[in-house]
Amino acid sequence: MEQNIQLKQITKIIDETVDKEIKELIDNVIQENTKSKGRPKKYLNTEEAKEKAKEQRKQFKQRQRQKVVLFRKEVTAKQLDIAKMINKYILDDDDIDSMIVILDNLTQN
């Protein structure tokens, strides 16, 4: 009889410990599932994220420098073209005098 009581107590203790372990396992699985919801992490750690951000900033600055260089080249080319056009159409005093003479001759006729 005492053996039956001891066996029952032992099985009860075993069941309780097994139930606790099973509950802990289930809780851990549930917590992992809730943590994994949402957007997945892009980087494994903060160092990797900082390194990637630094690289992206560097690439952005390079692209900006290239854009500025191209813009300056275009602007200087246009400025040179404008200067050439102005020099082409600038009239000297002699040119203006000859135009006035021609216009006077036309109006007199």
Automatic annotation (TrEMBL):
Q: Where is this region: Disordered?
A: 34-60
Biased region (Basic and acidic residues) positions are 44-58
Q: Taxonomically, which superkingdom? A: Eukaryota
Q: State what protein this is by name.
A: BZIP domain-containing protein
Q: What's the source species' lineage?
A: Eukaryota, Metamonada, Preaxostyla, Oxymonadida, Streblomastigidae
